[in-house]
């Protein structure tokens, strides 16, 4: 009544109570009575806000992309913001103007300004894959913006939810990607088949190399066996030659022995002959009769034999010789008895 009213705000609202154009009260979560004809109340929300945005930009290859995301911010200087925008509330707590929309639009405009320079410098395909880079550009652009600094707000962060091309270009990119994937699949199939052929070639080559190695080993074995046989034959030949040389040496030694023995026997015979000749030499010129007499044989038959020899030597001088049978019989009987 009489223009005196009461108003109450929550703890997340910073309140400025102007009375006659000067600040009478200020603070968060105030509750007070005021005289409405000379009072003006400004209420600024202090909580963090998530501001969604969607805007379009053109890429370096003249294609349009739609960037969708959100910006998180909070008001950290309410008196600064109150000097720029009107957050005056009516007696019922409703804002007289919707300057919160102006605040949001200014933030979005600054975000788009920070993004446009980057998007204009890249191509469509790259822009679609540049969400993180766009987030960084928006965040850095807003934090360094003088206009944002004049609003008394703090940028908490930015998130890019989607980057999309126009439907026609999206279908074209899908077709291109599909064709590229198909080509990659065909290339993979070709490479797999080529790899299989190459592996089969390697296996065949390995088998051939193995056969060649086996043949080479067999050849080496045959050569070694031949060398062994040759060496064995040469050793046998050398053994035979050594045996022959040994036999020749033995025969030569036997020959030398026989020759030496013959020479010794010859010398021995010559020595015996010389001794015999020297022994008989005194008797050589003696008459046999003398030798017979020297023999001094007392056997009557020997003397009778000598007598018959003497008769034989002088047979030409003897006319008739009569020998009695008794004499011959006695000689023969003595001879038989002696046997």
Ordered list of secondary-structure elements with their pairings:
Layout: E1 4-8, E2 13-19, E3 22-28, E4 31-35, E5 39-45, E6 49-58, E7 64-75, H1 78-84, E8 88-89, H2 99-120, H3 124-128, H4 131-144, H5 146-151, E9 153-165, H6 167-284, H7 288-295, H8 300-313, H9 325-338
Antiparallel strand pairs: 1-4, 2-3, 2-5, 5-8, 6-7, 7-9
Helix pairs in contact: 2-4
What does this structure look like?
The chain is of the alpha+beta class and 339 residues long. The protein has nine helices and nine strands. The protein has helices at residues 78-84, 99-120, 124-128, 131-144, 146-151, 167-284, 288-295, 300-313, 325-338; strands spanning 4-8, 13-19, 22-28, 31-35, 39-45, 49-58, 64-75, 88-89, 153-165. The strands form three sheets. A four-stranded antiparallel beta sheet has the order 3-2-5-8, with helices on one face. Strands 6-7-9 form a three-stranded antiparallel beta sheet. Strand 2 (13-19) and strand 3 form a beta hairpin.
């Amino acid at each position: 009544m009489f223009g005196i009213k009461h108003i109450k705000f929550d703890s997340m609202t910073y309140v400025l109570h102007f009375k006659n154009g000067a600040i009478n009260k200020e603070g968060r979560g105030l509750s007070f009575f005021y005289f409405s004809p000379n009072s003006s109340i400004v209420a600024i929300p202090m909580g963090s806000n998530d501001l969604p945005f969607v805007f379009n930009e053109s890429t370096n290859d003249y294609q349009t992309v739609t960037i969708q995301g959100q910006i998180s911010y909070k008001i950290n200087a309410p008196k600064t913001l109150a000097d720029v925008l009107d957050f005056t509330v009516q007696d019922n707590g409703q804002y007289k103007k919707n300057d919160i929309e102006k605040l949001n639009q200014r933030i979005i405009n600054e975000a788009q300004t920070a993004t446009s320079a980057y998007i204009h410098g890249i191509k469509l395909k790259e822009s679609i894959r540049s969400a993180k880079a766009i987030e960084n550009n928006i965040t850095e652009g807003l934090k360094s913006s003088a206009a944002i600094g004049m609003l008394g707000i703090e940028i908490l962060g930015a998130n890019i939810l989607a980057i999309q091309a126009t439907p026609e270009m999206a279908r074209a990119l899908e077709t291109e990607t599909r064709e590229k994937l198909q080509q990659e699949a065909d290339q993979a199939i070709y490479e797999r088949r080529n790899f299989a052929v190459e592996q089969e070639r390697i296996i065949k080559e390995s088998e051939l190399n193995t056969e060649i190695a086996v043949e080479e080993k067999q050849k080496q074995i045959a050569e070694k066996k031949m060398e062994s046989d040759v060496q064995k034959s040469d050793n046998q030949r050398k053994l035979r030659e050594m045996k022959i040389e040994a036999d020749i040496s033995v025969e030569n030694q036997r020959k030398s022995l026989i020759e030496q023995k013959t020479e010794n026997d010859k010398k021995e015979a010559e020595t015996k002959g010389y001794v015999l000749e020297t022994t008989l030499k005194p008797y050589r010129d003696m008459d046999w009769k003398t030798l017979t007499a020297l023999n001094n044989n007392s056997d009557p038959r020997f003397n009778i034999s000598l007598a018959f020899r003497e008769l034989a030597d002088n047979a030409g001088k003897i006319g008739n010789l009569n020998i009695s049978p008794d004499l011959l019989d006695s000689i023969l009987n003595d001879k038989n008895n002696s046997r």
